[in-house]
Design a protein that fits this description.
heterodimer, A: mainly alpha, Fumarate Reductase Iron-sulfur Protein, Chain B, domain 2, 2 domains, 20 helices, B: alpha/beta, FAD/NAD(P)-binding domain, 5 domains, five-stranded parallel sheet, 18 helices, 21% strand
Chain lengths: 364, 703
């Protein structure tokens, strides 16, 4: 027995983000029938749709099913009332980033366009402060050498520290998320470790097999795979670069295999992101409503990649504006890496955790 | 005057290819027929002219058209009123339903013609009963929205209307409304109650007489001349031709709903909530309000039916709350939201409100608490049982029809209209809305079936049209539905009446009053011409000019029953004209075939079959008698209510007759069909023929 107190504020926010009317859902269940990912027991998204209509925030935030959805949009396509369950799910995820954000204000400023200047100003101020402390807050003379502008030691230590800080804050949010997941499954007795269950869903993660179950829009899977592996490769190359900067010689030559690998990864990202952006622009009917959070993430990822390539070119070609471009690239890095738990990139954390929870709860 | 019979046989529509027309014509010449002619297409202009010129030149006054079913081409075969027409159905009932060019088929066609000739020879042209005191005024009983609408429509159509209302003021339930549901798109704003305007419109009409604070002491008489005694401090008599009854409804007694919390001051019915809103304009509503739909409705322990108005009313009342109190949440727990027709649009409009929450569910428990009421709901759409803490609870209760006892009819069958399922004074059959079993008295609005304001208004118009129709039909001496236009009426030869009261008791429409002795006193304008009285009369003193004991007996006797039984049994089939006869036509039209041993006599109703016809048939040597009519029972389809039921009760009597004649009980069988059961007709007939072949010949055959 659940006592219901509708959260009107939440309902209004959900309507605003999803652009769905919510109320017109007549609980026919077509969405759950056409969904290729919905489990047989208590399938989504039908039940979530009435929870949404009744403003039942607790039921929707901290719900595994919201994250088991891979947004293929079949439910929205077939919905006879046009209430777009896929967009509602997407909106719940977006609200989840804000709900679990630690500190809260970061969740707020990264999901509302009116706070975008602040979100940009934060990395500018902090990076400038680090440069000031390093004593290099000026455009260096001579051929382009980024370490003159941002010494490797300062760069690597500060960004590594900030990344770990973000991971710690992200984990704090995930702990609350996990607690909420437990609340929704009071009968759930965890068996086995998190790692064991993470291992059990390796296929879904590595091969994106859940994406394959989405019957339409095959390009989504290819695009996501390109971006996913492109990004992992770049992380790997970056790790090597840090290692090289410490014990080896840096920067790497254009012919260095790692450098080549990095460029291949950048191409993968650009192609993948290009497909995603094109789909969202030209196929709105099938890809649903694109929110500010969708665009912020896609565009900052795209700018990160493009600026990385350009910064590299600027070094080899010795462009005058190389350092300005480099500074811009660092802000993009900040948006992607340091802001990770607060932007749509947070799905990396929440979706994996929800999938692990579902696996350990036997929700298939 | 001698009857001059003209027989016209059509060979078109494959009839000529199946039946030997020349041989058939000889049958006519053997009988007392003036003219017999053949034509390849009687329904053509030449065919019609052929008959018309014989009527004009040869003084033919009895025309027999041996061709297609009498249900078809009635607009073609339209002859002057002094000509009696009979249609021998040799197309559907012989040529199309039996094997062509067989000896048995030819015999069936010949018997069909013989029966028709026998019928017209024993039939008179009806001379309608036209009373000389017919009033064109109309009485409307009940001054609610239904009665007012009916009265306005009647007056606008040019009839003087008396509208009576027992309360001091016209308006009924609508006087209690704060706002009304919009009738048209966009359905987003409620409208002000329309009743004041309606009353003004009514009062402006010259030919309406309003009787408020008035009741009825007694209504006697018949359509065209009802004497109505009104009571309004004093007695007043008005004469009207027909009556529309719109006595309306009352709310279900919420005291029976204590399990839903009724009795607690925070729990109101929908009626009380409406009054609360009307009497407290602008008063803010509390934070959380729950509407429980079907409170004591669609519930076997209370009202088993849906009252049709409560869902939309709750939606309207939810809007009262939301329009005035933006902070309030409204919850609606329903069994099904039933907003019929375009009110679905109103529902959709209400659904747009973010603070009106709907779920299907069953109320498990209502627990009054200190500051609020906790309501537990199971089987919800939420996916689990829920509890709602609310500050106010509104029970959407249903309606109970007021009944019509207040009409105080001076009929031997009771003071009001008969009541059907759930006490609604309904039409007796789904396809005859507004019809009641009291001719000239029509029910409209929620006393007929649960309905909302919009439906009540259209219902009122429909009932008023029926009331007008009755007056006009009565003026012409014609029957109303379902034998509309029938000019015949029962003619009683009272000298031989034994006052057995069977006719007065069995008439479904209360046509007969009776004197102290029990002698029937007919009211021909109450009569629907079903012939049930004719069927009931053991003394055979009731007859219609064109449907009598003699005419059917003559038809039965006209058939040539072969002496040899082998392969030539004869089955007499009495077929009800209403559904069974068209079903037989349809069977033939669909190419279905059945046994050629049957001889068909259409009857007005199975209830009109007189016992004497059975004994006539058995004496004549028929081997079996099959009666096919409409379904009896709770959801009966008999057009005259209990005609087919009577065949069952009278059946016992008939079995006695069979016993005295030493005959098997299977010699008589009754089957019930619906009009759509045409595909079952061949099986019904063939199975019975087989049964009779097993039993063997009627021993009276050779006598």
């Amino acid at each position: 027995m659940i006592n219901i107190q509708p959260d009107i504020k939440f309902k209004k926010q959900l309507k605003e983000v999803s652009k769905s009317s919510l109320n017109e859902c007549m609980q026919c269940g077509t969405c759950s029938v056409v969904c290729s990912l919905a489990p047989e027991e208590k399938p989504f998204p039908r039940k979530e749709m009435i929870w949404a209509g009744w403003g039942m925030k607790d039921k929707l935030i901290g719900n595994t099913d919201i994250w088991l959805c891979h947004q293929c949009g079949d439910c929205s396509t077939y919905c006879p009332r046009g209430v777009k369950p896929a967009d509602v799910f997407s909106a719940v995820r977006e609200i989840s980033y804000q709900h679990y954000a630690k500190p809260k204000f970061l969740g707020k400023i990264l999901n509302n366009p009116k706070w975008l200047p602040i979100a940009i100003l934060i990395p500018i101020i902090i990076i400038s402060t680090i440069l000031y402390l390093a004593g290099t807050l000026q455009i260096p003379e001579g051929p382009v050498n980024y370490s003159k502008f941002f010494p490797h030691v300062w760069l690597n230590s500060s960004f590594t520290f900030l990344s770990f800080l973000t991971i710690a804050l992200g984990i704090a949010g995930l702990r609350n998320f996990w607690k909420d997941l437990r609340l929704q499954y009071p009968d759930f007795k965890p068996s086995g470790s998190f790692i064991k269950h993470l291992f059990s869903i390796r296929k879904e993660i590595i091969l994106h097999s859940n994406f394959s179950k989405c019957s339409n829009k095959k390009s989504r899977k290819i695009a996501h795979l390109l971006v996913f592996y492109g990004f992992i490769l770049l992380l790997f190359v970056t790790a090597f670069a840090i290692y090289a900067a410490i014990v080896h010689k840096y920067p790497l030559a254009i012919t260095n295999p790692f450098k080549i690998l990095g460029n291949v990864a950048a191409m993968m990202l650009l192609i993948g992101l290009g497909i995603m952006i094109m789909n969202r622009i030209f196929d709105r009917k099938d890809f649903g409503n694109s929110t500010y959070a969708d665009w912020l993430f896609l565009i900052s990822m795209f700018l990160l990649t493009i600026s990385g390539v350009v910064v590299q070119a600027a070094r080899f070609l010795d462009w005058g504006i190389a350092y300005h471009l480099y500074f811009f690239h660092l802000i993009c890095v900040w948006f992607i890496i340091i802001y990770l738990p607060y932007t749509k990139f947070g799905h990396l954390l929440y979706r994996v955790v929800a999938m692990v929870f579902a696996a350990s709860a036997g929700r298939k | 005057m001698e009857k001059k019979i003209g027989v016209y046989i059509c060979s078109g529509c494959e009839i000529g290819k199946s039946i030997d027309i020349e041989k058939l014509s000889q049958i006519a010449s053997e009988q007392n027929v003036t003219i017999c002619k053949n034509h390849s297409s009687l329904c053509s202009i030449e065919g019609f002219d052929l008959i018309s010129s014989d009527i004009a030149n040869e003084n033919i006054d009895r025309v027999i058209i041996a061709a297609c079913s009498p249900r078809l081409k009635t607009e073609v075969f339209d002859f002057p009123e002094n000509v009696l027409l009979d249609r021998a159905n040799i197309r559907e009932q012989v040529a199309w339903s039996m094997e062509p060019n067989e000896e048995d088929t030819q015999m069936a066609a010949e018997d069909c013609l013989r029966m028709s000739i026998a019928k017209v020879a024993n039939t008179e042209i009806p001379n309608p009963f036209i009373a000389d005191n017919i009033s064109s005024d109309i009485l409307v009983v009940g001054g609610g929205i239904t009665g007012i609408t009916a009265a306005i429509d009647g007056a606008k159509a040019g009839y003087k209307v008396h509208i009576i209302e027992k309360e001091e003021k016209l308006g009924g339930w609508l006087n209690k409304l704060h706002k009304q549901i919009p009738y048209a798109a966009p359905y987003s704003e409620l409208i002000n109650p329309e009743i004041e305007d309606k009353i003004k419109e009514l009062e402006k009409l010259d030919n309406i007489q309003i009787h408020t604070s008035t009741t009825i002491k007694e209504i006697s008489g018949q359509p065209g001349h009802f004497e109505v005694q009104l009571l309004n401090g004093k007695e007043e008599k008005v004469i009207v031709g027909s009556i529309v009854t719109a006595t309306g409804w009352q709310a279900y007694d919420a005291n029976k709903l204590s399990y839903l919390g009724y009795g607690n001051p925070k729990v109101l019915t929908n009626v009380e909530f409406e009054e609360f809103v009307k009497n407290n304009p602008g008063k803010e509503f509390p934070k959380n309000i729950l509407f429980i739909q079907c409170a004591g409705s669609r519930d076997k322990g209370h009202l088993p039916y849906c009252s049709a108005f409560c869902c939309a009313t709750s939606l309207k009342q939810a809007k009262y709350i939301r329009d005035l109190s933006p902070e309030s949440n409204v919850f609606v727990v329903y069994k099904d939201i039933r907003t019929l027709g375009l009110y679905e649009e109103f529902y959709k409009e209400i659904q747009k409100d973010d603070q009106i929450f709907f779920t299907k569910g069953e109320i498990e428990k209502v627990i009054p608490e200190k500051n609020n009421i906790s309501v537990q709901v199971k089987d919800t759409l939420i996916g689990e049982d829920i509890s709602l803490s609310v500050d106010m609870l509104v029970l959407a209760t249903g309606m109970i029809p007021n009944g019509t006892e207040d009409l105080n009819l001076n009929y031997r069958l009771g003071k009001g209209l008969p009541e059907l399922k759930y006490n609604f004074s309904d039409s007796h059959f789904i396809c005859f809305p507004y019809e009641t079993r009291r001719t000239g008295i029509y029910a409209a609005g929620s006393l007929r079936e649960p309905m909302n304001i919009a439906s009540s208004k259209s219902d009122a118009s429909g009932a008023m049209l029926k009331a007008i129709q009755t007056i006009q039909a009565t003026k012409r001496g014609e029957a109303v539905h379902p034998r509309s236009g029938d000019k015949s009426y029962p003619d009683l030869f009272l000298d031989r009446c034994t006052d057995c009261k069977r006719c007065t008791e069995e008439c479904p429409f209360g046509s007969y009053d009776e004197n102290e002795k029990g002698t029937p006193l007919p009211n021909p304008n109450r009569c629907r011409r079903c012939g049930i009285c004719l069927g009931s009369c053991p003394e055979r003193v009731i007859n219609f000019a064109d449907y009598s004991i003699n005419s059917i007996s003559a038809m039965i006797k006209s058939v040539e029953v072969p002496d040899e039984f082998e392969e030539k049994p004869r089955i007499l089939v009495f077929v009800c004209e209403n559904d069974a006869y068209p079903a037989m036509d349809m069977a033939a039209q669909k190419g279905l075939k059945y046994s050629p041993f049957v001889r068909v006599i259409p009857v007005r109703c199975l209830g009109s079959i007189n016992k004497v016809w059975i004994s006539d048939a058995l004496s004549k040597g028929y081997d079996g008698i099959l009666q096919i009519g409409c379904k009896p029972g709770d959801d009966y389809q008999c057009h005259f209510i209990h005609g087919s039921e009577l065949t069952e009760t009278r059946g016992e009597n008939i079995q006695e007759t069979l016993e005295t004649m030493m005959l098997e009980p299977e010699r008589i069988k009754t089957e019930f069909v619906e009009i759509t059961d045409y595909d079952k007709i061949p099986k019904i007939i063939n199975d019975y023929v087989e049964d009779i072949e097993l039993i063997g010949p009627n021993p009276f055959k050779e006598l």
